[in-house]
Amino acid sequence: MNAPDIRSVLSELVILSLRNPRAAAQQIIGWRLDRNVLWTALALAAAVNTLIFSVSLVLQPTPGMPAFFTSPLAMFVLLTGVLVITTHGLFWTGRALGGDGNLGDIMALVVFLQVLRIIAQVAIFLLMYISPGVSVLASLGTGIIGLWILVNFIAAAFDFTGLGKAIGVLLIAMAAVVLGMSLLLSIVGIAAQGVLLDV
Questions:
Q1: pTM here?
Q2: Which one, of 151, 171, 163, lies nearest residue 24 by Cα?
Q3: Tens digit of pLDDT for each residue in 4-44?
Q4: How far apart are CA 187 and CA 149, in angstroms?
Q5: Which of 19, 51, 59, 93 is most buried, with most CB under 10 Å away?
Q6: Cα separation of 123 and 160, whole Å?
Q7: Other CB atoms within 10 A of residue 88 CB
């Protein structure tokens, strides 16, 4: 598949995710991507998110930002850890609630959600310089739409007939993610502070 074909497929999949997220999830799952490809894509998504975050900090510094957030390496480790914890949190919670999905399916959907997130971040970042007020509304809207897509992706991945169990999976998994992030933040924060002190 050449570059124009990839762009075309991606564009169609983005539109389908907005119109019919369950159908988009089923299409992504149907690709049956190799686990190594998914891990690489996950790391790449974390790297791109780190780049966007670092650029935004340079262009719009935030006073009082914890020191380790200014370290690209620390942010990359943090974001990668969050994606890994989120993937496993969704998988094990979904299985515990009777879902039939597998880890590869969840990982593929999490990676694609990151693609959507990156597209939205870039659009909102550019919109910020045109109309800051509109960019805030756009950020809120994309957050709500993102949750809607995620719930439907979870339902499709675990073959849930309704969204009730999918919402339950999301809530329980997010609680696990918060706990995991707290531990990860403490580890990354200590490591980053050590690096900064050495410098």
A1: 0.86
A2: 151
A3: 577 788 889 999 999 999 999 999 999 999 999 999 999 99
A4: 31
A5: 93
A6: 33
A7: 17
